[in-house]
Design brief:
Length: 110
């Protein structure tokens, strides 16, 4: 499932024209996801990553709402960022679930 969302995110980027700030934001999200994916065996670290990613997505939503009100963003980009945030939130939920399952199975049974 996680890889399906990652592929969708890549496809979204190919369909829209992004400015440098938007590209930077997406790069930051990708980096946060990558760092979280490296710590799936450590529940405490994964919970910290989860919080950072969730806060970052909330900030993106806030900024997009502001830009929509100012009419400084196209409908196409609004849709893109909405889909992007939705997929990142799902990836984030899946990674936390994996870390919890790993912790329950391996750590508590050891």
């Amino acid at each position: 499932r996680i890889s399906n969302y990652a592929v969708r995110i890549q496809k979204y980027q190919e369909k829209v024209t992004l400015n440098s700030e938007e590209k930077d934001r997406i790069g930051q999200l990708q980096n946060l996801i990558f760092m979280a994916s490296k710590d799936l065996k450590d529940l405490k670290k994964e919970e910290e990553h989860y919080g950072r990613i969730k806060a970052f997505c909330k900030e993106i939503k806030r900024r997009q709402t502001k830009r929509m009100k100012e009419k400084s963003i196209s409908f196409e980009l609004t849709l893109f960022f909405s889909q992007l945030v939705n997929d990142v939130e799902r990836i984030n939920e899946h990674m936390l679930a994996i870390a919890r399952d790993y912790d329950m199975i391996v750590v508590h049974e050891a």
